[in-house]
Amino acid sequence: MVGDTEGSGADPRRWWTLLVVSAAQLLVVLDGTIVNIALPSAQQALGMSDASRQWVVTAYALAFGGLLLIGGRVSGALGHRRTFVVGLVGFAGSSALGGAAAIPETLFGARALQGVFAAALAPAGLSLLATTFTEARERGRAFGVFAAVGAAGSAVGLIAGGLLTEYASWRWCLYVNVPIALVAVCGTVLVPPDRPVRRGGRLDLPGALLSASGFAAVVYAFNEAQPHGWGSVRVLALLGGGILLLAGFVVVEVRRSQPLLPMRVLVHRARAAAFLAITLMFVAMFGFYLFMSYYTQTVLGYSPVQAGLTLIINALAALVGSTLVAGRLHGRVPPTALILPGLLVTALGMVVLTRLTPDSTHVLPVYLVPALVLTGLGLGCVMPPTASLATAGMRGHDIGAASAAYNASQQLGAALGTALLNTVAASASAAYLASHGHATAAAASVHGYTTALTVAFGILLAAACLVALLTATGRRPGKAGTPERETSSPVPDRRPEGDPSR
């Protein structure tokens, strides 16, 4: 019977893998938001300037995003479990260093180190999950839980950041990572071991340098777009340089016999649809989280803790969507049957908030709760099938590369969404104030938020159309395989027998 543990020959310890990988996923996602809440207190305590405070966030994002593909290669070479443990220990140590920082430079360096170890931890964890759960029903449940933790992590980070900063100290927003990481390290004793990928050749150094520098330049450009605007010379130079470096990376990878990121990971249509869906979903959702935080605190007057608690609705809805909907339907329906409705339901949640005005009454029950529920359900339905599709059918080095590429897609989406939608909101607010002489600051802010959320709605609709197009063409028989295999998970390994990564 499907999912039956008894007599199936499956290692009963595999559920420990889900537990420890979910704990690591919580660390990585939570750390992206929890420090944001603590930043004003940390700035005051350490005497950071307004110009330098951004490096608390940017140092982590650049190291994490820039080194993800290298982390995926290291995970395959050292073994996923071993890399996972090294990542956890390093993340705990760098978190403790940041919490104890006495000067800004120590905090910046600690955040960069957190990003380095997260770049190894994230792809190793996803690879462990993908190699441990191969049966369709169990894979669906496992990826559902993994996605629920990832979807809820941002909201949990806002709540935990508010509570720890208000009732303990900003330093505990970093110290809290240490016990979570150490508990996960202890749990890895029960994780089934895996073997490193034995393959000849050296590290793809040109690919590593091009990918790390190109990805870091693009992410930094997105971060710089918020204070300087998209038309600034700095942003355009960083963005143009980053795109050129990434284009050079693709050229190098196509020509190398043992590339850092094999292009076969990306050219499969169903897998490309998964990468595209999760990237654009994160573009929309990270803008959504940003505006929820600002709107509830600056317009409605919520405290940081109250604003974080409001987002619990979104986290619970994501939990329902990922475990009770996507987790149970995985293997019974094609992934597209979850991804497309998830994108559309999330888009509907954005539409609800575009109807807000400065004079709207009963905002929480009429606008916020429906929007939080719909976006949470949609996110919960999209993350499990995209994570599963991204790694399905991959073996050897390819599974680490696919896991890293999936995490990189999320990082790019989050960075672009925050910068792009924040810029749209700021521009719309300024234009509203200029054209409405007697408008209040709150009215201008609400207009900016609704304009940006309208853009997010359009992004999600575009994502749904592109995913539908990719999977529709993917159903046609061809080199990629049969229609069923092209649109369902797992995707068979189609590499030649002589491929060294097999």
From TrEMBL:
Region (Disordered) residue spans: 475-502
A molecular function (GO) term: transmembrane transporter activity
Gene Ontology cellular component list: plasma membrane
Annotated transmembrane regions: 15-35, 55-72, 84-103, 109-130, 142-163, 169-191, 203-222, 234-252, 273-295, 307-326, 338-356, 368-391, 412-434, 446-470
Entry's localization field: Cell membrane
Lineage top rank: taxon: Bacteria
BP-aspect Gene Ontology terms: response to antibiotic
Compositional bias (Basic and acidic residues): 482-502
Gene3D superfamilies cross-referenced by the UniProt entry: Multidrug resistance protein D
Domain Major facilitator superfamily (MFS) profile: 17-476
Topology of this chain in the membrane: Multi-pass membrane protein
Main location: membrane
InterPro entries: MFS, MFS_dom, MFS_trans_sf
Keywords (A to Z) from UniProt: Antibiotic resistance, Cell membrane, Membrane, Transmembrane, Transmembrane helix, Transport
PROSITE patterns the record matches: MFS
Name of the featured protein: Puromycin resistance protein pur8
Protein's organism: Wenjunlia vitaminophila (Streptomyces vitaminophilus)
